[in-house]
Amino acid sequence: MEKLKAFLKRKNIEISAKRYFIDALGAMAQGLFASLLIGTIISTLGTQLNIELLVTVGNYAKAAVGPAMAVAIGYALQASPLVLFSLAAVGAAANELGGAGGPLAVLVVTIFAAELGKAVSKETKIDIIVTPFVTILVGVALSLWWAPAIGTAASAVGNAIMWATELQPLFMGIIVSVLVGIALTLPISSAAICAALGLTGLAGGAALAGCCAQMVGFAVLSFRENKWGGLFAQGIGTSMLQMGNIVKNPRIWLPAILTSAITGPVATCLFHLEMNGAAVSSGMGTCGLVGQIGVYTGWLSDIASGTKSSITPLDWLGLFMVCFLLPGLLSWLFGQLFRKIGWIKQDDLKLDL
Question: Is 13 in the same domain as 144?
Fold first, then answer.
């Protein structure tokens, strides 16, 4: 056992929840953003401006999503260059074979392939052959074996959540909004979770509402301490910046959480806000306005398929209310209450910007 521990330490193979479910998941979200999300934004811009070049560029970016996710995960696992580069093929296979649950399949398969690749890396004199051979062989074999089942399971869970949200939009709107919003602020990836489960439709709208409640909520709530820099850093960046302060005083999280419990059912019951764009957009909130662009591209897709006749003023009102106005207003009101009763004190939300 001691020899195994020494070997794993020498190979930088750390079997831990932090390494696999925080570091790897967070990196996977960046891979998603650098391929599928930015590709969607570029192609949508090209479609609206009638610039074919942008559409083509965006499509190529979206096509690279599997390799981008796998390489990002390998980077988070601190894989050696040969392992890292070999993971591109693994990501392509896992994402394609995983179907709608491709991102989850990429996460699981890439972790195994990367760690096994790291284990054999530089152990032989023909490392340039052995390392990529083992990494790709293991990764693609596991993709053939596991990815379809992982994709089916992820799709089943995502479909169950979406079905439950349509059946009970009030209660499920609250649950999905609160949980995905919390995930966005925690050092894990709400975007990757939404992508892995394929959360779209009303459930995607509730998830978006929860994420916006956290980002816009903390941006407005902490404006007293962080001014305009904090407003933009959290409002279009990430509310994860507040995690250090949340650990010190968990009660500063309550305004955003309570807000998400309200905006979630407002999205599902009042405005029937659906995310029919890329599922990953459901977990992005207002980060680079990706969530809102996702809703817009979903509207365009619905119009093109004939399921929606046009984009109405009520659609725009719902998007604005759920993503911006209500999160800011409600979080500010809850914050005023908690400041008054002493649960939130001066500089509890202060960021080092």
Answer: yes
Residue 201 bridge partners (DSSP): 275
Residues 194 and 327 in one domain: yes
Spatial distance between the Cα atoms of 279 and 338, rounded to a whole number of angstroms: 34
Is residue 114 within 8 A of residue 135, CB to CB? The reply is yes
Whether 232 and 140 share a structural domain: no
What the block records as the tokens of 299 is: 């509207």
Of the listed ranges 24-33, 207-216, 309-318, the least confidently predicted one is 24-33
Total domains in the chain come to: 2
Residue 202 · residue 36 · CB < 8 Å: no
Residues of the chain above pLDDT 90, percent: 61
Which of 125, 154, 183 is the last residue before a domain boundary? Answer: 154
Tell me the per-residue pLDDT of 44-82, one tens digit each, with 9 for 90 and over: 788 778 999 999 998 999 899 999 999 999 999 999 999
148 assigned to some structural domain = yes
pLDDT mean over 250-265:
96
Distance between CA 150 and CA 245 in Å, rounded?
A: 36
d(CA 248, CA 225): 16
Tokens 């070999």 map to which residue?
86
User: Is pTM, for the whole model, over 0.85?
Assistant: no
| Distance spanning both ends of the chain, measured CA to CA | 46
The three-state secondary structure class of 275 is strand
- Residue 22, class by beta-carbon neighbours within 10 Å (0-12 exposed, 13-18 middle, 19+ buried)? middle
Helix (H, G, I), strand (E, B) or coil at 271: coil
